[in-house]
Write a structure and sequence with these properties.
Helix content is 74%, strand content 0%. It is mainly alpha-helical and 324 residues long. The protein folds into two domains: 1-156, no CATH class; 171-324, no CATH class. The longest helix is centred in the last third of the chain and has 29 residues, at 295-323. The protein starts with a helix and ends with a helix.
């Protein structure tokens, strides 16, 4: 039986992703900023009654912890397994979605991988399932639907991606109207953050607003390089002839929503940063589909890569600075 070269490459790439993901799961206590948060998650999942766990918004994550509890290696081994699974699904998904899979993974690994796989374990797992449902299991309808539902019950913020992709994949926007569409989106997000979100009774939303009132998570740097580069790059892609076809993809629209949300949700900084981080994966797909077709986009890709590496260094050293 003849095996296609592409299949061999994908198998080797998959094995490399599993190893790298497991290594990322070996959390360094002096670097991992969310260590105490995940210690608390594990304690809740292993100690609380099952009927209490299933009533929580992110119930499936706690059920996974309960199922793992007592296994060899305990919580440390669980983070390794989840890291390996998350990076495998995410890496293979962006490899399928991008015309330049190596560039896409390098761009992802320069910063976003450290934010998600290394730091935000729960969100990374949920996002990886969502991406796999879109790019790996699209033809397997039942598997795709189950994966999307599971993603939402692991991390409720994935509702944004699941609903957003499902709707935006069916909408067509002309290049001439992209700025009008972007303005409407940005204005709608501003209205949402000021007049709707404060009255949402969802537990996580209420906690963030309570922290904001107490002065926690109240700062945001509106001059951050990465969101600004995202907005600028998406504009250049839309008005460059050889890359403008990207405007007609769901990935472009999600990337634009993520970039604009950083500014439109600035009244609630934690939402602004989280939505931007969540949707940046789609920006990477759009960027790496375009960077070889336009010199300005290529220059912006290099700038994005440089600022991503800088941001990753800051992320991984902040906790060390605090402890010293």
């Amino acid at each position: 039986m003849k095996v296609r070269r592409a299949t061999v490459y994908e198998l080797v790439f998959g094995l490399a992703l599993l190893v790298l993901g497991a290594l990322l799961g070996l959390k360094e206590s002096g670097v991992w900023q969310d260590r105490f948060i995940y210690d608390a998650y594990y304690a809740m999942g292993s100690e609380l009654p099952l009927q209490v766990l299933v009533a929580k918004p992110d119930a499936l994550f706690y059920v996974l912890v309960r199922a793992w509890d007592g296994a060899v290696g305990g919580k440390d081994a669980l983070w390794c397994v989840l890291g390996a699974l998350s990076l495998l699904l995410t890496g293979l998904s962006i490899g399928r979605a991008s015309e330049r899979p190596v560039a896409a993974f390098v761009t992802y690994a320069s910063f976003l991988m450290w934010v998600q796989i290394y730091t935000q374990v729960r969100m990374a797992l949920a996002l990886s399932l969502c991406l796999a449902s879109i790019y790996l299991w699209r033809k397997a309808r039942v598997t795709s639907v189950v994966a999307r539902i599971a993603a939402c019950f692991i991390h409720s913020s994935l509702v944004v991606v699941v609903l957003g992709y499902s709707v935006l994949d069916r909408i067509r926007i002309s290049r001439k109207r992209v700025f009008l569409w972007s303005g409407i989106v940005g204005f709608s997000v501003v209205l949402l953050s000021y007049y709707a979100l404060p009255y949402v009774t969802f537990e996580k939303v209420a906690v963030y607003y309570e922290l904001l009132r107490e002065g926690g998570h109240a700062r945001i740097n509106l001059f951050s390089a990465l969101p600004a580069l995202q907005v600028a790059t998406l504009a250049v892609i839309a008005f460059t002839k050889r890359t403008s076809e990207q405007v007609d993809t769901a990935e472009y629209r999600l990337a634009m929503i993520g970039a604009l949300s950083f500014y439109a949700l600035s009244a609630v900084p934690v939402f602004a940063v989280r939505v931007n981080e969540l949707l940046s994966i789609f920006f990477i797909i759009v960027l790496t589909n375009s960077y070889r077709k336009s010199w300005p986009v290529f220059a912006m890709w290099l700038a994005y890569l440089a600022f991503s590496i800088k941001s990753a260094a800051l992320l991984l050293t902040t906790e060390l600075v605090k402890q010293s």
